[in-house]
Amino acid sequence: MSEPTNRPRRERLAERSVDRAAGRDDRLDQPLAQARSWRWRPQMDPEQFGAFAEGFARFMGTARFLAYMTIFVTVWLVWNVLAPDNLRFDPYAFIFLTLMLSLQASYAAPLILLAQNRQADRDKVMIEQDRTRDERNLADTEFLTREVAALRIALRDTATRDFVRSELRNLLEELDERQRRFDPDDGEDATEDARD
Contact, 65 vs 111, CB < 8 A? Predict the structure, then answer.
């Protein structure tokens, strides 16, 4: 509802109160209906633009970019200092060069920030994946620790090779001792033969 500005404020307020009573008011708790715009708005894929921003930021961080920029500024300065007066397009204060560099910086800064934000998002995902992997590894390690402890407890009850050998030695010694007790003559003969 367009309201002419030449009407008195009281009339406009009275008309609004009539609209509210009729239920035709603009409610603040509900979004407005989207009016179709006749202006053209560029449609950009955020992923493609982000990839472009990362490539641009990556290029700006290279020695090649610094070399190109140094050559550009040097040629600009030399041309505007040494060229004939009628061919100079930016006199000594180099205002146009400053404007060009400011324009480049004004575009570079948001692109670099966008690239940093994308890298931060990737880092968050990587950190979350690392945390999940670490938790899984910790759970696996705890499980394996419990299993090894259970095996150790189970092995305490089983006979080991050394235990069986020592038991067999003890039994052989017992048998030898019993045999000596029952055959005292053989033991004496064995000692007499050993003396001869």
Answer: no
Assigned token pair, 178: 């019993």
For 31, list phi and psi in degrees, rounded to 5.
-70, 150
- Helix 161-182 to helix 184-195 angle, to the nearest 10 degrees? 90
Determine the Cα–Cα distance for residues 25 and 17; give it in Å rounded to an integer.
8
The pLDDT tens digits of the residues spanning 63-94 come to 999 999 999 999 999 999 998 989 999 988 89
Q: Which tens digits make up the pLDDT trace of 108-144?
A: 999 999 999 999 999 999 999 999 999 999 999 999 9
How many angstroms separate the CA atoms of 27 and 30, rounded? 6
> In the chain, which residue ranges form alpha helices assigned H by DSSP?
9-22, 46-60, 63-82, 95-157, 161-182, 184-195
Query: What span, in angstroms and rounded, lies between the C-alpha atoms of 144 and 41?
Result: 60
CB 89 within 8 A of CB 80: yes
Residue 171 identity (one-letter amino acid): L
Which residue type, as a one-letter code, is found at position 39? R
Q: For residue 80, give every residue at least 6 positions away whose Cβ sits within 8 Å of its Cβ, in sequence order, or none.
A: 88, 89, 90, 91, 92, 94, 97
Between CA 186 and CA 41 the distance in angstroms is 118
